[in-house]
Model the fold of this input.
Amino acid sequence: MPIQIIVGTQWGDEGKGRIVDWYAAKSDFVARYNGGDNAGHSVTVGNTLFKLHLIPSGIIHPHAVAVLGNGMVINPQSLLAEMEMLKGHGILVGPQRLRISHAAHLITPSHQALDKALDAARGKGNIGTTGRGIGPAYTDKAIRRGLRFSDMMESSFLNKLNTLTREINNQLSSLGADEMDVAKIEQDFIQYRSILLPYITDVSILLSDAHEKKAFILAEGAQGTLLDIDHGTYPYVTSSSTTAPGVFSGLGLGLTTANGAIVTGVCKSFQTRVGSGPFPTEVIGEIAERLRGSGKNPWDEFGTTTGRARRVGWLDGVLLRYAVRINGLTELIITKMDILSGLMELKICVGYRKNGVEIRDIVFGPSNLEDYEPMYETMPGWDEDICGVREWDRLPHQARSYIAAISKLTGVPVRMVCVGPEREQVVTAK
Ligand code: IMP
Done:
């Protein structure tokens, strides 16, 4: 059984949650390998909208085991809130169904406070982080003072926690921010530990054994390719490996498990971004408002985690080709095709111009795109409502041409197209 990897090809928010939910129906394990509760995955099942930040959306299916990998940074308070929310919907979230890597790092309230203080100190050049403590938790991992779930299994845990809180307090006070209450954090973590200990697992053994026994493993990426710490629009990125290769280090899977992997890139039919950083195809005005939506619907372009209005623009085919290269994508899924209905002219960026020179591919990474002028291929749009379409041949021919143009530009087949937020609102491409 090959592993299937689901990654975002843009700046996150491509709609990966509902795609994971779709494939989870046939998966034995659904595993997150990077990031933390900076992610926001929305899945609509019937009348219920699930907003998940940490637990893979596969948990909604009764048989799949959800796994949180060592590549993640996990805020136990958010995790417990999410577990409660799921239980409220009648979804079983015991240790049999949810496993947390012993080597995943803990996010504490101090990390969150430091994240906010550091981004505020950047002033105008701020990254616009989600304020969830992601950067500081990964920093602590890299400088080797971080706390892992395995630390909760040791008697030295509270000492380590208190030392870390005091060290971060020094940083906070040097930034002019309020210090955190050491005793309160200790009390809270005593409670988190008592609940979460049974969930701690050697995820590498669990998944490697499962793979050997031909179980189907679905790896769920968070954020998107262009937010990858190495390959994204650095420094306007998150702090983890969001791309497909991160699966193997982030879950403790050996490279041979990659043989025959299906690498699915999820791509919105247009481009969005939250936070700062370059965005060559960004649009403002009427078309932007049309693409973003009013904010009244849960699927409008407002952050699941922060509620911020997303920046929007035309699909960037150059960046999409880059995502194909970095991830080794074997297929694409295009989400939110229905949002394009009613736009009588569509554009796809096929190259950039800088100082009179045409650029067709990303060289030296996508960080320096600030003054790149996009070159567009313009295509006719369609007026029909496509939300009810389930068969490829019933899509307007302009929509099929748009998809064909994406395939041609990237050299990767489009497997499926989403025409609405519901589970069943998908069209398998021919
Ligand atoms: P951080 O991950 O909170 O450090 O934020 C770094 C950058 O990544 C900011 O621009 C965030 O808006 C962005 N970001 C982080 N997580 C997501 C996500 O799940 N979707 C979209 N953008 C995200």
In short: The chain has a mean pLDDT of 96. Residues 11-13, 38-40, 127-130, 132, 134-135, 222-223, 227, 236, 238-239, 274-275 surround inosinic acid (CB under 6 Å). The longest strand covers residues 345-354. Residues 2 and 260 are 5 Å apart (CA to CA).
